[in-house]
From TrEMBL:
Keyword Heme: no
Organism: Cytospora schulzeri
Signal peptide: none
Gene Ontology MF term list: fatty acid synthase activity; oxidoreductase activity
InterPro entries linked: KR_dom, NAD(P)-bd_dom_sf, PKS_KR, PKS_NRPS_Biosynth_Enz
Entry-linked Pfam families: ADH_zinc_N_2, KR
Protein name: Ketoreductase domain-containing protein
Domain annotation Ketoreductase: ranges: 105-289
Keywords, comma-separated and alphabetical: Oxidoreductase, Phosphopantetheine, Phosphoprotein
Length: 337
């Protein structure tokens, strides 16, 4: 646990060291996990096994003191927090954000007509956004997207949904120029890139098209947004994935694109030429919006693996609420996020 070396001399005495991941055993072999647990509890009950001593007991109300004692480095044995029905604990007041999006500004949502994008759009409108530019390769092609656009326009929200491949710099540049000419009174003040195209395959079997299509959805869309959007926007947010950190079977192309987004966010964050927040959010599986909620094959893939914790749309909106806030201290931070 201390990342130290094992002395070699003890191995001459037929000593074996083995690392066992109990969580993995519980997930993959519940029968074995049950047997191990039952046997261990039996050994404890008969006195053959004994827990570490001494035990330092703290009631739940003094949990903070327990952690401070642990941090002191003077503790031996084990620290145990006990609980009773009458324990009183400190509850921190919930902070409710009150900031609003600028009703006289435009916000760009790339990939905004899919399930996740629609959820973000509704959240932004609920916080005061009145002008939205939502470029996508297919435009308003689904009933869900069409219904959303119609509903927002009934609420006097200006939402432009041009057909535009943001991975093509020339096409995206023209779309931006056309929009700016038509809406000079609503300058662009923020961008969220949720573009994603998954083409999963084992790397040895992956075609160039599968590689390029996924890379373009992450790398080219992010780079073109980085180079073509104004430098003084309040936030530049890319929705990336934990796959870029941990990897996933058949998703080397997606992992590569996500790590590029992470690097781009850091580069923008340390560059003095760019104002506002620049961040790449490495998300887990989004459970109630986006691809898992829309495609059965990916829902089964997550249920079978569950290698990365799931995220709810409400959790993502809470994170966006923090990073989109123009008063966020990260807006003037000089280190990568």
């Amino acid at each position: 646990m201390a990342n130290s070396l094992l002395p070699m001399g003890i191995f001459a005495k037929n000593v074996t060291f083995a690392a066992v991941d109990l969580v993995s055993i519980v997930k993959t072999n519940k029968k074995l996990a049950t047997q191990l647990f039952t046997k261990t509890m039996g050994l404890i009950a008969e006195g053959s096994l004994r827990g570490p001593r001494p035990l330092h007991l703290y009631p739940l109300a003094e949990a903070e003191n327990a952690f401070r004692f642990m941090q002191s480095g003077n503790n031996t044995g084990r620290i145990v927090i006990t609980r009773t029905e009458n324990d009183q604990v400190t509850k921190h007041a919930v902070h409710r954000s009150t900031w609003r999006f600028d009703a006289n500004a435009t916000y760009v949502i790339i990939g905004g007509l899919g399930g996740l994008g629609r959820a973000m759009i509704e959240w932004m409108v609920g916080k005061g956004a009145k002008n939205l530019l939502v470029p996508s390769r297919s435009g308003v092609s689904s009933k869900a997207a069409s219904d959303l656009v119609a509903r927002l326009r009934d609420q006097h929200v200006r939402i432009a949904t041009p057909k535009c491949d943001v991975s093509c710099a020339a096409e995206f540049s023209k779309t931006l120029q056309d929009y700016i000419r038509s809406m000079p009174q609503a300058p662009i003040k923020g961008c969220i890139n949720s573009a994603m195209a998954l083409h999963d395959a084992i790397f040895n079997n992956m075609t160039h098209h599968q590689w390029a299509a996924t890379i373009q959805s992450k790398v080219q869309t992010s780079w073109n947004s980085h180079t073509l959007l104004p430098r003084n926007i309040d936030f530049f947010i890319m929705l990336s994935s934990l796959v870029g950190i941990y990897g996933a079977l058949g998703q080397s192309n997606y992992a590569a694109g996500c790590t590029f987004q992470d690097a781009l966010a850091r580069a923008r964050a340390v560059a003095s030429a760019y104002q506002g927040v620049s961040v790449s959010l490495d998300l887990g599986w989004l459970l109630d919006a986006g691809i898992i909620s829309e495609r059965e094959d990916y829902r089964q893939k997550w249920q079978g693996a569950q290698d990365i914790a799931g995220v709810r749309a409400a959790d993502l909106m809470a994170v966006l609420d923090h990073f989109c806030d123009p008063a966020s201290p990260l807006a003037n931070c000089s280190s990568g996020r």
